Amino acid sequence: MALEITDLTKVFGEQTAVDSINIKVPAGSMYGFLGGNGAGKTTTFRMILQLLTPTSGSILYNGKSIGYHMTDQIGYLPEERGLHPKLKVSEQVLYLAELKGMSKKDAGKALDYWLERFKVTENKFKKIEKLSKGNQQKIQLIASIIHNPELIILDEPFSGLDPINVEILKDAVKDLNAQGSTIIFSTHRMEHVEELCEELCILDRGKQIVSGNIDQIKQDFGQKEIIIEGEHDIAFIKDMPGVLEMEQIRNKSVIKIADEKYAEDIYKRITDIGFFKRFQVNEPSLNDIFIAKVGRDYE
């Protein structure tokens, strides 16, 4: 187990920003923190990095407390911009890489590799303030991963990027993970967590709503979704056992059922009627789970 968080709490005055969360992040995994603004994601990250002192609870990495001795093994991308606007890209990134223990030569090679990979080679000698927000985000990510850290913490890494650049950065994050880095990232985009992560923690107003293996969470949740397409009238399904909700748009019906076991009866009923183009049972989405657990739509 790479990271183990136990009963972690942070209180600011009368506000509890993080309320007794318990998380285990396996070594070499990609772990997602999902939640809206004010959920407690950034506060949790700052406590992991010792930028904030927990009110109570413990954080262990490979069984030990995280201290200054670990600095060179960690990469951190903060949500807010943290680069000096008046410095050139090369000056800023090479300086930070040397602080992390890299030689100037190795840092220069790594910088050229990442600038090429992120398609921003023309910005090497430009001042940070002259770059677009998206390109500043790319440079900031390069600065956080250039030293090939074993633990990478990314706070909203894809914010402010267009879809093409999101894909470029996602590919880079996947490669770093494949090479052995443990990656923890926060986002408010459910599809990023579903695509990239095996494990997640959903936070809402500082509380841990659900956490663990995504497939297991979906399985344990029970509810499933059935999609049926065909010409026949199947309105009767809404009154069948286990059916929670049914929506019909022309020839397509989307049915939420309380458990997978109810799908078989529905299948038998419709196949007795005649031909249907599609009968598909899907796992619940993270949004379905969020609504059920929190009682409101995810923002």
- Would you identify the regions where 5 or more consecutive residues have pLDDT less than 50? none
Hey, roughly how much beta strand do the residues contain? Answer: 25-35%
Helix content: 25-40%
Q: How are helices and strands ordered from N to C?
A: EEEHEEEHHHEHEHEEHEEEHEH
Q: Please tally the β strands and state the result.
A: 14
**Overall pLDDT score:** 90
Cα(first) to Cα(last) distance is: 31 Å
Oligomeric assembly = single chain
- What structural category characterises the helix and strand content? alpha/beta
Biggest sheet: strand arrangement: 6-7-8-3-9-10
Describe the global form.
elongated
Radius of gyration: 23 Å
The major pleated sheet works out as:
6 strands, mixed
Please report the number of helical segments: 9
Domain ABC transporter: 3-230
Pfam families: ABC_tran, DrrA1-3_C
Family: Belongs to the ABC transporter superfamily.
Keywords: ATP-binding, Nucleotide-binding, Transport
In brief:
By secondary structure, this protein is an alpha/beta fold.
Describe, in plain words, how this protein is organized in 3D.
- The chain is an alpha/beta fold.
- Helices cover 33% and strands 29% of the residues.
- It has nine helices and 14 strands.
- The chain has helices at 41-48, 89-99, 104-117, 133-145, 163-178, 190-196, 214-221, 261-273, 286-294; strands spanning 3-12, 15-25, 30-34, 56-61, 64-65, 74-77, 151-155, 182-187, 199-204, 207-213, 224-229, 243-249, 252-257, 278-282.
- The chain has a six-stranded mixed β-sheet with strand order 6-7-8-3-9-10, with helices on both faces. Strands 2-1-4-5 form a four-stranded antiparallel β-sheet, covered by helices on one side.
- The mean pLDDT is 90.
- Belongs to the ABC transporter superfamily.
